[in-house]
Amino acid sequence: MSYKLNLDKLDFQIIQEMMENAEISYADLGKKLFVSGGTIHVRIKKLEECGVVKGTRLSVDLKALGYDVIAFIGIFLEKSSLYDTVAKELRKIPEIVRLNYTTGNYSMFAEVVCKDIKQLRFVLHDELQKIKGIERTETFISLDESLNRNVVVVGE
Amino acid sequence: MSYKLNLDKLDFQIIQEMMENAEISYADLGKKLFVSGGTIHVRIKKLEECGVVKGTRLSVDLKALGYDVIAFIGIFLEKSSLYDTVAKELRKIPEIVRLNYTTGNYSMFAEVVCKDIKQLRFVLHDELQKIKGIERTETFISLDESLNRNVVVVGE
DNA sequence: ATTGAAAGAGTCTCAGT
DNA sequence: ACTGAGACTCTTTCAAT
């Protein structure tokens, strides 16, 4: 399915560093990895062209912005085949930030970010319940997020 | 707990734009939002100082890097009070990228990113099972990720 | 608080190795 | 494929409003 990309140790090191902090200059990153800034530049350009690097995103503290409630929702479908149509409806709800089709107990798994419990209640009760094909849902509200990081990427 | 931050519409607009694409120049973003590049600069500096903006991160295609398997793990603890000690152990496992203490069925909820099923099996069987305090786990393997985006942030 | 311009720092290109 | 230097663009500072 996916092409055989020829990434070496340096490519993985660059990705690892910049996944945590994309603001570092090419010159500084080059020093850290014992190559020139020019080489870092060439590698990043290659990684962008082959689609491995998709861009850079601002990392924000959602709590500080008033988004205090994170919840996970396990969704049971009436029929598994309804996945695509239900996913299409769920996509329209801006509070839903992530959606996965999963094996196991639930048919789908969603993550919701809200300002408060009132808004979560609105999403669960008003938005979700009117979507055809959803049998029932189970909600897990996050009381504490103890970890949120990137995976450690390594070559073979 | 958190300070009353005085963020206006412009702050929220800047955050919204840069959550998706942090590479845009201050001048271009200023044009888009009808202010000068200097104003964008002042606002971002303010947002960094008050901790709302934590930095920028490279967005990568994990599948292209060979990380094909995303799984969610519901964890049942023997006692809820074991949360901190179990979280400390789970933190040591690099494949675990996210960990939440939740209400509902499970005590904790983890997300795992692996190269293949073999590696997932290793995490579940060898790493997780030897942690004291975990009663049992339920695993949900993602067959398809249909959505992964940022929440839409708005002021009051 | 916002602006525009000048100074400083970083990115990008390219010829040489 | 890597390097270093020059051209170019962006960030950062600051005086004026």
From TrEMBL, chains A, B:
InterPro entries: AsnC-type_HTH_dom, Dimeric_a/b-barrel, Tscrpt_reg_AsnC-like, Tscrpt_reg_AsnC/Lrp_C, WH-like_DNA-bd_sf, WH_DNA-bd_sf
SUPFAM superfamilies: Dimeric alpha+beta barrel, Winged helix' DNA-binding domain
This protein's GO CC annotations: cytosol
Domain HTH asnC-type: from-to ranges: 7-68
Keywords associated with the record: DNA-binding, Transcription, Transcription regulation
Superkingdom of this protein's organism: Bacteria
GO function terms (MF aspect): sequence-specific DNA binding
Any one GO BP annotation for this protein: response to amino acid
Stored Pfam families: AsnC_trans_reg (PF01037), HTH_24 (PF13412)
PANTHER family, sorted: LEUCINE-RESPONSIVE REGULATORY PROTEIN (PTHR30154), TRANSCRIPTIONAL REGULATOR AZLB (PTHR30154:SF34)
Entry protein name: Winged helix-turn-helix transcriptional regulator
